């Protein structure tokens, strides 16, 4: 008779072998110096308990839509972590001031968190949210970027700021193995809204898993004042399991290469800007949305159902006059736009990518506007 303790140990050993193999494969594909593969294997050895449970769960307990047992029993998602970024968490306007030195602290964290009501995903994040924190500086500022890779990470990480003039946008200076910290500084010479993201190969995988954010470099006089500002980014998630699966889902490299995401999301996960963080405003308020596409692959046709953008700063440029009276703005992967509008009628306005099939894969956000009805502008008949 086989000792149950022997079987348990064999299962644990097999789980550790799967975890190390998977991490080594991902880290090895990065092709970086500094012994990335060895660092990943060492991290796996040091943090085997957390990694093993995740790898075994991913290998044996993800419940695909077609599972027969799923039709009889719904498996609850045990993880309550949430990486969604509150769209109203925007740094305040800077306005007029002399250039300063600004320190930006980023920590790369890998965390299993909610993907939708039934599934979780192991996100790779900046500061624990997707997108990472919005950074706001003034043109002429010197920006010191300090990047720390959490000790329990499986992967090497870094950060590339599109606002940087310099090699790799800072990525080469911030290659961090788990537990390391690096820093660099740059002069913010060009006003505008810019994306930042992890740039460790495979770059697209790091971005698809959640490693992107934005930095606003204000012009000397700042931006015109508005009543409310929001921070919204679109992303794609590539899972081996089909859309709607239950349990811990795993990233799929082949789908990533073929640009076939299972999920399209705003601010990290399905429902982040509907059930979790619906945006709030009042009739007559001027609203500004800083919108970007973390991608890594698909262009967005950003649209707010029931509104027309009064002003659009195309490609995030704040040095050119904005376009006016725009219905939909095209934002490329790794790009940004600033839109402004003033709701005149109360109700729910829905943020979408007008490639509307993506709504069926999770992409939507709500802007709930309160105030008095305005029948001269809009009313039902009959």
TrEMBL record:
<dbReference type="InterPro" id="IPR011707">
    <property type="entry name" value="Cu-oxidase-like_N"/>
</dbReference>
<dbReference type="InterPro" id="IPR045087">
    <property type="entry name" value="Cu-oxidase_fam"/>
</dbReference>
<comment type="subunit">
    <text>Homotrimer.</text>
</comment>
<keyword id="KW-0479">Metal-binding</keyword>
<feature type="domain" description="Plastocyanin-like">
    <location>
        <begin position="110"/>
        <end position="220"/>
    </location>
</feature>
<dbReference type="InterPro" id="IPR006311">
    <property type="entry name" value="TAT_signal"/>
</dbReference>
<dbReference type="Pfam" id="PF07732">
    <property type="entry name" value="Cu-oxidase_3"/>
</dbReference>
<protein>
    <recommendedName>
        <fullName>Copper-containing nitrite reductase</fullName>
        <ecNumber>1.7.2.1</ecNumber>
    </recommendedName>
</protein>
<keyword id="KW-0186">Copper</keyword>
<dbReference type="InterPro" id="IPR001287">
    <property type="entry name" value="NO2-reductase_Cu"/>
</dbReference>
<dbReference type="InterPro" id="IPR008972">
    <property type="entry name" value="Cupredoxin"/>
</dbReference>
<comment type="similarity">
    <text>Belongs to the multicopper oxidase family.</text>
</comment>
<feature type="region of interest" description="Disordered">
    <location>
        <begin position="77"/>
        <end position="100"/>
    </location>
</feature>
<keyword id="KW-0560">Oxidoreductase</keyword>
<keyword id="KW-0677">Repeat</keyword>
């Amino acid at each position: 008779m086989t000792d149950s303790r022997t079987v348990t140990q064999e299962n644990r050993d097999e789980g550790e072998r799967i975890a190390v193999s998977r991490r080594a494969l991902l880290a090895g594909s990065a092709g970086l110096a500094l012994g990335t593969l060895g660092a990943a294997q060492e991290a796996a050895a040091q943090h085997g308990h957390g990694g093993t449970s995740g790898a075994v769960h991913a290998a044996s307990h993800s419940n695909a839509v077609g599972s027969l047992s799923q039709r009889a029993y719904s498996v609850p998602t045990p993880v309550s972590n949430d990486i969604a970024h509150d769209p109203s968490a925007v740094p305040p306007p800077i306005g007029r001031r002399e250039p300063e030195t600004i320190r930006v602290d980023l920590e790369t964290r890998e965390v299993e968190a909610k993907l939708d009501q039934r599934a979780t995903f192991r996100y790779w994040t900046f500061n624990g949210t997707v997108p990472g924190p919005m950074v706001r500086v003034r043109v002429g500022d010197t920006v010191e970027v300090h990047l720390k890779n959490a000790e329990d990470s499986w992967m090497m990480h870094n950060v590339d700021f599109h606002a940087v003039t310099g090699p790799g946008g800072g990525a080469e200076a911030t290659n961090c193995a788990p537990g390391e910290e690096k820093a660099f500084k740059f002069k913010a010479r060009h006003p505008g809204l810019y994306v930042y993201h992890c740039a460790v190969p495979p770059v697209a995988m790091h971005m698809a898993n959640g490693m992107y954010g934005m930095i606003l470099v204000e012009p000397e006089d700042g931006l015109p004042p508005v009543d409310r500002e929001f921070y919204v980014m679109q992303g794609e998630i590539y899972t081996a399991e089909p859309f709607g699966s239950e349990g811990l889902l795993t990233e799929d490299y082949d789908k990533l290469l073929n640009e076939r995401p299972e999920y399209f999301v705003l601010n990290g996960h399905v429902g982040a800007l509907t059930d979790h963080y619906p945006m709030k405003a009042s009739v007559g308020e001027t609203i500004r949305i800083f919108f970007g596409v973390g991608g890594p692959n698909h262009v967005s046709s950003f649209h707010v159902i029931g509104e027309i953008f009064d002003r659009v700063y195309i490609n995030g440029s704040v040095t050119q006059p904005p376009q006016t009276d725009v219905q939909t703005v095209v934002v490329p992967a790794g790009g940004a736009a600033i839109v402004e509008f003033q709701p005149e009628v109360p109700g729910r306005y829905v943020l979408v990518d007008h490639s509307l099939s993506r709504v069926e894969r999770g992409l939507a956000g709500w802007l709930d506007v309160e105030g008095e009805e305005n029948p001269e502008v809009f009313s039902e008949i009959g």
